[in-house]
Design a protein that fits this description.
The protein contains 19 helices and 24 strands. The chain has about 800 residues and is an alpha/beta fold. The chain has a domain of about 80 residues: Leucine-rich repeat, LRR (right-handed beta-alpha superhelix) (Alpha-Beta Horseshoe). The strands form four sheets. The protein has a 17-stranded mixed β-sheet, with no helix packed on it. A three-stranded antiparallel β-sheet has the order 1-3-2, with helices on one face. β6 and β7 form a beta hairpin. It is elongated, with a radius of gyration of 45 Å. The C terminus is likely disordered.
């Protein structure tokens, strides 16, 4: 009988997990595994006891009674019953010297027969199969706890992740990279402290000398010294050299981590599978606890057995006792207690799964504790696996972060970079841009190859997402370099290299995700003409410390800020007297502090995009030299302040597009110098006649509004070259429109026009006509008079185009062909 038993070891194999997977098992999973193992042992113990000792013992009733079969008390053997038994037994009289009780005159075989029959008739099924039930329940819980390690779509990713994680943890490069960056960080702190103290002393003396050729740093610039001092020194400690085998293994790990991240971060299947598994365990626990707890009051020691075998044994009703009832009752109590503990842990795991953003993992603490400030945050399944690892030991994810850092990877591959890039390869990457300048764009490299400095005729250098950019003295060989782009590149520059950039660089574009990526030396480039800064410059993340030194940008003409500034920084006034163009794209953040604009007396172009302005700032009307004003994508509803245009006598271009303007006041006529007016994407219903009394207006754009009628006064714009009324509600066109004989571009698409006047033939200068999206039925043949109109610039439905006479279509098509031939 015992040969058929399962061993505990065989059952425990259901809960067996590969040892390396332990790092993905949080404490609650481990605790639930131990609880499952205890429940398993409890089930096996109950099964063993039931197989060996489970039975019932029955005694017959001496008298058939109408007792309730549910009565489980022993029969009362009174004197009367004994007398009755004696009367039935005849010669078997009760002797006062005999032991008390009732003789049944049944032999052993009859008792065995009755015991076996009553065991199957009256003993409840849960008393007979309860150990097997809890065994099945336990196996289900054990399987569901570790199924995510076995399921094909999850186990493959988990196995690969665990393999990579363990190799990264044990890699010699991890230890060396962490220790090296700690050393570098210590050296940089020393240099920063010494350099800053020296700069502050020297700055106080040199600022007193007017006309001095040396450029000073602002005290607010963290660690930057004067141009006569090194801006960034080479690290004193050399990079630890790995064995060739260790280096190759580290490079392979970087590649594996990158590919695994790209593969895993695109979905959250593992997270959803684990969440579903946790929900299933919780639901299973609740259902198991609900029906097993009901057995607690139903496992009884006494049972009444009624049979139809009275002819065989002489009795029809029997008292039976179940000898395993007491043990099963205790086992059930223990099992319910274990289930409650299991359920509480299960509920906690369910709470953990859904309480926080487990599909996002931030290495913020790792970035703060180490010099690897570029470790990216991860998401989806990658993030979830790292959250699971953190429950085991956070040291794994900290060391794993080294292999997510581009800085760490760049340090490892920096040596091979210069071998990879030769002069021929670099020259091949040089292209000609739209301004016919020689341009080199390098992206996602490990550093700046030294061979770049040998491109002496290079004019534009674009560097994007290169973590280690260092301009050495060799940059002075690039005598033609005038424009530099740094996209998320915290570049460093040495002393001689800085002196060259300071004197030769005219245009600088900086894009960053964190303000610390802005190189501090850029504000010392005294010959800089254009500065573009794109990134977060809000006061919460940056106190404008970098802009403090803008007073050293003595020749700056153009300043472009694409950020989320709460107010226009007052430090811009340092360049206000020589600034010609100011562009602020504020990404929907409300901009305050515009009174600073009053000091920019030489400003010619001003662009304030997405600044949540509700009206035209009054400070703008103090800019007497202003020629172009662009207030795109704000929240302007009324423009009553436009009466002050009379002060801006040089303003030729006004752009108020993408706002909420509902009406144009008659005071628009004050803008007598206006040549271009952009009012598209507003809520205009009509146009005032005063608008058409602007004597110099050549470009008028009122597309994407709600205009129903175009006033006849449009014919007063005799110098009009461009008119765009696309996407309005025009049903007719005034005849005076065709008096604007200088029109070259006429956009009438997506209106409700039903007819196009024959007078369109008077627009002999027309070279672009858009009519798509109207209700036109035919086109006038007079379009043939528009000799400059080409088919490619004639936007109309094909069926309408076919209504033109053949000679007109041939003329347009022929002219188009001739134009294409001339271009070729």
């Amino acid at each position: 009988m015992f040969d058929l038993m399962f061993t505990v070891t065989e059952f425990a194999s259901l809960n067996d997990v590969h040892p390396t997977y332990r790092i993905l098992k949080p404490w609650w999973d481990v605790f639930m595994d131990y609880l499952s193992l205890v429940m398993l042992m409890l089930a096996l113990f109950a099964m063993t006891m039931q197989i060996t000792k489970d039975q019932v013992a029955c005694l017959p009733f001496m008298e058939e009674s109408e007792e309730n079969s549910g009565n489980y008390s022993y029969p009362a053997h009174t004197a009367q019953e004994v007398a009755t038994a004696t009367a039935r037994g005849g010669e078997n009289c009760i002797n006062q010297h005999q032991a008390p009780g009732i003789k049944t005159n049944l032999d052993f075989q009859q008792y065995v027969f009755i015991n076996q029959m009553c065991y199957h008739l009256v003993l409840p099924w849960y008393s007979k199969f309860f150990p097997y039930l809890i065994l099945i329940n336990t196996v289900i819980l054990m399987v569901s706890s570790n199924f995510w390690f076995k399921f094909p779509k999850t186990s493959s990713k988990i196995e690969h992740f665990v393999s990579i994680l363990c190799r990264c943890f044990e890699s010699p490069w991890t230890t060396k990279a962490v220790s090296e960056t700690a050393c570098e960080d210590s050296e940089e702190n020393k240099q920063r402290l010494s350099g800053t103290s020296f700069a502050l002393k020297k700055a106080s003396l040199e600022r007193k000398e007017e006309g001095s050729s040396s450029t000073l740093t602002s005290p607010m610039l963290d660690g930057v010294v004067s141009a006569d001092m090194p801006i960034a020194e080479a690290p004193t400690a050399s990079m630890p050299i790995l064995d060739k085998k260790d280096g190759e293994q580290a490079k392979a790990l970087f590649e594996k981590v990158r590919k695994f991240r790209a593969h895993v971060e695109d979905n959250d299947f593992i997270y959803r599978f684990y969440a579903a598994q946790t929900i299933f365990k919780t639901a299973t626990f609740i259902s198991m606890l609900s029906y097993t707890s009901s057995f607690l009051v139903k496992i009884n020691f006494i049972h009444i057995c009624e049979t139809d075998v009275k002819a065989l044994v002489g009795y029809g009703k029997f008292f039976c006792t179940h000898n395993m009832a007491f043990l099963l009752d205790k086992v059930l109590i223990c099992y319910i207690a274990l289930m409650i503990m299991y359920g509480m842990v299960c509920l906690y795991s369910l709470f953990w799964v859904f309480r926080g953003p487990l599909k996002e993992y931030s290495f913020e603490k790792v970035r703060e504790e180490s010099s690897f400030s570029d470790i990216p945050d991860v998401k989806n399944d990658f993030a979830f696996l790292l959250h699971m690892v953190d429950q085991y030991d956070q040291l794994y994810s900290k060391r794993f972060g080294v292999f997510l850092s581009e800085v760490s990877e760049n340090k490892l591959r920096e040596i091979s970079l210069n071998h990879e890039w030769n002069f021929k390869k670099a020259r091949k990457c040089v292209t000609r841009n739209a301004q016919d300048q020689q341009e080199l764009h390098l992206k996602n490299l490990f550093g700046l190859p030294n061979v770049v400095f040998d491109l002496t005729d290079l004019e534009v250098l674009k560097l994007e997402k290169i973590p280690e950019v260092r301009f050495t003295a060799n940059v002075s060989q690039m005598t033609s370099l005038r424009e530099l782009h740094l996209y998320e590149c915290p570049a460093k520059v040495e002393q001689t290299g800085f002196a060259f950039l300071r004197d030769h660089l005219h245009s600088l574009h900086i894009s960053f995700t964190d303000v610390t990526e802005i190189p501090t030396w850029v504000f010392l480039l005294r010959n800089l003409r254009e500065l573009f800064i794109i990134g977060n410059l809000s006061s919460e993340n940056n106190r404008m410390v970098g802009l403090e030194s803008m007073r050293d940008l003595r020749h700056l003409k153009t300043l472009h800020l694409k950020s989320n500034l709460p107010k226009l920084p007052t430090n811009i006034t340092d360049v206000s007297h020589h600034l010609v163009r100011l562009v602020v794209h504020n990404d929907g953040t409300k901009l305050f502090g515009l009174n600073t604009l009053k000091k920019m007396t030489n400003l010619i172009v001003l662009e304030l995009h997405s600044c949540e302005l509700e009206k035209i700032p009054h400070a703008i009307f103090s800019l007497l030299n202003l020629q172009e004003l662009d207030l795109k994508s704000n929240n302007i509803r009324t423009i009553e302040e436009i009466v002050s245009l009379q002060h801006l006598k040089r303003l030729t271009c006004l752009k108020l597009w993408h706002n909420q303007i509902t009406a144009i006041p008659s005071s628009i006529v004050q803008g007598k110098s206006l040549e271009a007016l952009h009012l598209s994407h507003n809520k205009l219903v009509s146009l005032p006649p005063a608008l058409f009394r602007l004597p110099k207006l050549q470009y008028l754009d009122v597309a994407h509004n709600l205009i129903q009628v175009l006033p006849p006064d449009v014919g007063l714009l005799l110098d009009l070259l461009h008119l765009d009324v696309t996407s309005n509600k025009l049903e007719t066109l005034p005849k005076n429109l065709f008096k604007c004989t200088k029109l070259r571009v006429l956009c009438l698409g997506h209106n409700d026009l039903r007819e196009l006047s024959q007078a369109v033939g008077d627009l002999v200068q027309l070279n672009h006509l858009e009519l798509k999206g109207n209700n036109l039925e035919r086109l006038p043949a007079q379009l043939g008079n528009c000799r400059r109109l080409l088919k490619n610039d004639f936007l109309v439905e094909d069926h309408l185009y076919m209504t033109l006479p053949v000679e007109v279509r041939e003329s347009i098509s022929r002219d188009s062909t001739m134009a294409s031939t001339s271009v070729l």
